[in-house]
Each structure stands twice: as C-alpha cells, then as structure tokens.
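Q: I have 151 residues here and want to know how they pack in 3D. Can you give me a structure?
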Amino acid sequence: PLGLGLSHAPPDGDIMQRLTSAGGIDNWPVPHSSDSFEIAARTWWDFAPFICMLSPDADEPLDGELLPGVYVIGGLCDYRRVTNATRDLAEMRGVRCRRLPIRENLGNISVEILTVDQVAITLLEVANNGGDWTAALTAAIPPRKLTLGQP
C-alpha cells in the first residue's frame, strides 16, 4: 500500500499554518511531523527497508516495479531550480537518490523536472500498472509537455 506523509513541517511554520487554516490538517489521514524526512519516515513506516529521495539530478533512474520503501518527493521545493541541491541533500543524509526514468521511457521531451503532484501521480500509476513507466509518465505529464525537445 502507498502512504503519504508531510515532514519538516513545524506546527508554527508557514506550511502548517496554511494547511490548518485551509481545512484542518489534523482531520486528514496524513501523518505530519516537524522532524526531517528520514526520521519521520522511519517513525511512520517501520516496514520501509530504505528511503529514496527523488531528484532530477540523480545519476540513476528508477526502473521496473516500485520496491517497498519510502520515496521522498519534493525534498527541496523552490520557485527556482537549484542544480544538485536535492541530490546533495540525499548524499549528506545517507539515503539513495534516483530520478524518474523520463528520458529512458519518453525520449528527449521538453521537460525533465516535474511538479510534486505529477511525481505523485507517476508513482501511483507505476505502482498500479505493474511497472509500466511509459504509461505512468504519460498519464502524469500534461500533453503539451510531451513534445520533443531540442537534441
């Protein structure tokens, strides 16, 4: 089964204040913590044999079916792209780092960086379709972004 959790979210922080005012996150079936992702994930999902941070800068792609584990989406969310920031954080924390296999499955399309919700949709799709990354990515990425980019 897939689960969703929110980490690095202190009760007095901007994210938690916005989520609380938007409808009461305490009523959501989503665990949340002010702890870092690696501490929070081990607290919520003790079955997880590994933690994998997803980063467009990772050298190795995910492939095949998803293995049981914790996949960190949006390790660093920012309005501007900071090259290698998420990969460096994964290395610093001692967790594996992988990227979605966009090039391997869709070729040279015009996008390699997805939004948090597009990544979540991709993971849900691939978990439910037996490891078909092409179908999962096609379901998650808007059609306008599926055009071929420059070689």
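Q: Anything worth noting?
A: The longest helix spans residues 116-128. The longest strand covers residues 51-54.
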